[in-house]
Amino acid sequence: MKKIFTFAIAVLFVQAVSAQKPDRSQRPKPGPAPVIAFADPVVYKLPNGITVLVVENHKLPKVSASYSIDAGPIAQGAKAGVISLLSGMLNEGTVTKTKARYDEAVGQMGAEVGVFAGGGRASALTRYFSDAFLLMADALRNPSFPQASFDKLKSQSLTNLKSNERSATAISGRVVNALSFGLNHPYGAFETAQSLNSITLDDVKAAYKKYVTPSRGYLTFVGDIKPEVAKVLAIKAFGNWKGAVLTFPVLAKVSNPVKTEVDVVDVPNAVQSEITVTNLIDLPMGSPDYHAVLLANQILGGGADAKLFRNLREKHGFTYGAYATTGAGRGQSTFSATASVRNEKVDSAVVEFLKEIKVMRTEKVSAEVLQNAKNLYNGSFALGLENPGRGAGFASSILINNLPKDFYRTYLQKLNEVTADDVLRVSKKYFGHDHARVVIVGKTGQFLPGLKKMGFDVREFDSYAVPLKRK
Amino acid sequence: MVDFNRFTLANGLRVLVHEDDTTPMAVLNILYDVGARDEEQDKTGFAHLFEHLMFGGSVNIPSYDEPLQRVGGENNAFTSNDITNYYITLPATNLETAFWLESDRMLSLAFSEKSLETQRNVVCEEFKQRYLNQPYGDVWLKLRPLAYKEHPYRWATIGQDLKQIEDAKMDDVKAFFQKHYNPQNAIMVVGGNVKTAEVKALAEKWFEPIPAGERYLRNLPTEPQQKEARQETVTAEVPLNAIYMAFQMPDRVDKDYQVYDLLSDILSQGQSSRLYNSLLKEQQLFSEINAYLTGSIDQGLFIVEGKLVEGVTMEAAEAAIWKELNAIAAEEVTVDELTKVKNKSESIIVFAEMSLLDKAMNLAYYELLGDANLLNTEIHKYHDVTSTRILEVAQRTFVKEQSSILYYLTAQDA
């Protein structure tokens, strides 16, 4: 009896203490996955081919609209830079409004309006929205293309190019794509002083005719607006617009290196070196591998709890951050793992990059690691829905990528069904350890001997991806 | 309008709750009232280094990121000259995990030598990546000590030089934690699909047992009124010559803060602003031009900065800026100009109410300024600005003897 009594006291005592002192050694139990809800937009088509999507959300007194032309990758060839000049020129005034008057009209409303070769965007307080929207349409439909503006923009592009001459980051961005896709591919081509100098105002006008059009156009409204009102506005602004008919370009496939190679560019003034481990992949969003690849990428390099970050930053302190990204879409895209690394640690960092990729390709991830990655995705998917435009983004993605209608409604379910075997299989398929390209842009003097000593096949290039003679 | 409830725990921790049931998510934001301004002169960069160490494990939880990721949460932090701010977003059903993680690192860190060693290196790489390897990346490392002579705003958040970070010792780390990371020096905001009663119970369970610690009494030197024009020239491997002009202005809660803000908007907000129209479009002297406020809590700076078109001399560029500044100090701005920038401020404030995280961070910041409700009344202060007040402020501010000017030249023009 006494014994039982003491026990009861002890229980009471423990409970009393725990009310004040939580048990910090135990993590709280996780709750059920959040309930996901998003609104489908109202969707209809204008006779000229523009698809209109409207998401109504009256939480705040504002409306945003965007117009997006699905032209696909554009081959600019010897005229590389013409599309970015076209983008600039679309903001240089319309046939009825000089640039100064146009900018004044936008500014007066406190609105944001911008257009570019691939479309445009307007956002404003509700009371100014229709005016802002019509200004966007005016810039897309009636650009005045003044010669003086063209000369100014061209000279600015040349200055920009020059200003990035010695930037390791800019050189890396250019060289990685050029080497991966080749110079003849739309993704591999880049601006040079020569290509910019060859562009005339007529080239810009020709590009405008060809690519800025209602064909394959998506017009999205999000916010404090009724679908009927949006429709009236869409017809008023774009209803009678005519233009060239676009077809989505089909591009020749590019191959990966037969054997992993290291391509380096010397930038003697670089304080850090840019490392990119990359290979080309084919991954349509509708592929059965898609969700497993998302998780594999997350586990390898999706953030602060991923392998690359934990290794290169938290374990070795080589870099401020190391990440991986895996693209998906209709054409070829890339897997790449990147970091800006201390010059003297480049060779060690390359080894760690390849090691982590190899581990992904050869070892099954633990159930715990996989579950963590899934949970993170579940959370960030829910968080993304905070943006009321997300529903419209889903709908246009389904149309553009030709996905099943329930693609985003079943997104998390499919993600949660991915197994460790799936992750291993897709890592092997998409993360090309044996057919990769390691591009390093930086102070080669500090790492080239080390890399060669490790037995890598090292090739040297100049900052425009032209191979240097082998010594 | 951002609604909130407010209470204070027995140990002094201030807690604000913003209920928003339109999202399944929650945010837990903790602002520590410590920034680079609270550092000692020979230990700069410390507040920021410390922010990194906050992710190196706490007394009962070896890994911060893993348990959070497991419940679908994300986190990050930033340090400024004024504050250090940490935040978590996660599904509201897992809110308690955020309380568990944040309360444990407020209670005590693991203080591992290995973590200190690694983060010293990481911060040195961050210094290189963001300040040394970017064209013009070190401007603020030069401009701050020119514009401030007494106040600790004279050094940047990243620190004065790499050496001080490399020399950081574990004892310094522990002392810094004791001094600044306690409930009395923090403001917590919980927002999203939460109820105030639930937040209160969780706060009492996880945070109230943490000892109050000592209240840090800030006693920083006031920056004296500047009486002489200052100028400095630096050269570096940058593409274009640039000019940076800094003028002294009052602190964040000054009654004229919004006047300064609108003044900077009239000068450079958007492509129809004065500096953009005159200096970039008409005279084509600059390829970029901007006016803005540093927005610091103590006395701030009004900055005008621009990149020169090739071939334009620094003298001509500077004279052209002065001409615009003198013009705005000579005559009242027009009704149209004032309406335009007020519309813009209203848009910015409305658009900033979009995200839960922004709302939570703003509530914490305004609470630090004195009252979270200032967030909701800020717009009225903008509406109350008149062209007369703008004129007065421009006259007081754009004075040669109160300017600090940095010429940043490309190596070939030196």
From TrEMBL, chain A:
InterPro entries: Metalloenz_LuxS/M16 (IPR011249), MPP/UQCRC_Complex (IPR050361), Peptidase_M16_C (IPR007863). This is Predicted Zn-dependent peptidase. Residues 198-376 form the Peptidase M16 C-terminal domain. Transmembrane segments: none annotated. GO terms for molecular function: metal ion binding. Gene3D superfamilies: Metalloenzyme, LuxS/M16 peptidase-like (3.30.830.10). It comes from Pedobacter steynii.
TrEMBL record, chain B:
Residues 14-129 form the Peptidase M16 N-terminal domain. Keywords: Hydrolase, Metalloprotease, Protease, Zinc. The keyword Zinc applies. GO terms for biological process: proteolysis. SUPFAM superfamilies: LuxS/MPP-like metallohydrolase (SSF63411). Residues 170-344 form the Peptidase M16 C-terminal domain. Belongs to the peptidase M16 family. This is Predicted Zn-dependent peptidase. It comes from Pedobacter steynii.
